[in-house]
Write a structure and sequence with these properties.
Elements: E1 2-6, E2 12-16, E3 31-33, H1 34-56, H2 61-74, E4 81-88
Antiparallel strand pairs: 1-2, 1-4, 3-4
Helix pairs in contact: 1-2
């Protein structure tokens, strides 16, 4: 699944999750404080990666890459909100 978000600076970026679990943590149209968005993403992508590990014996490197990109971008904002623009399967 792809989830696209809009960062406080107005930039929109897509991220990948191997599982639909993201739908339990993020809602289209909702805005989350940056730290909350990172926390939700960390939890959802961790669960998604573990589901891949259970099925294939190895964690999902794309989920880890998405989380790393989210954390790197989030570190550039002292505050603000992240808006969830789209979730697509």
């Amino acid at each position: 699944m792809i989830f696209e978000v809009r960062w406080p600076d107005g930039s929109a970026r897509p991220y990948y999750s191997p599982s639909l679990v993201v739908e339990e943590y993020l809602t289209v149209g909702e805005s989350y404080p940056v730290a909350d968005f990172v926390s939700r993403s960390r939890e959802a992508l961790g669960i998604a990666s573990e589901r891949v590990r259970e099925k294939y014996g190895i964690a999902c490197s794309r989920a880890a890459a998405s989380l790393a990109a989210i954390e790197l971008t989030a570190a550039t904002f002292a505050d603000g909100t992240v808006r969830v623009e789209r979730l697509s399967r």
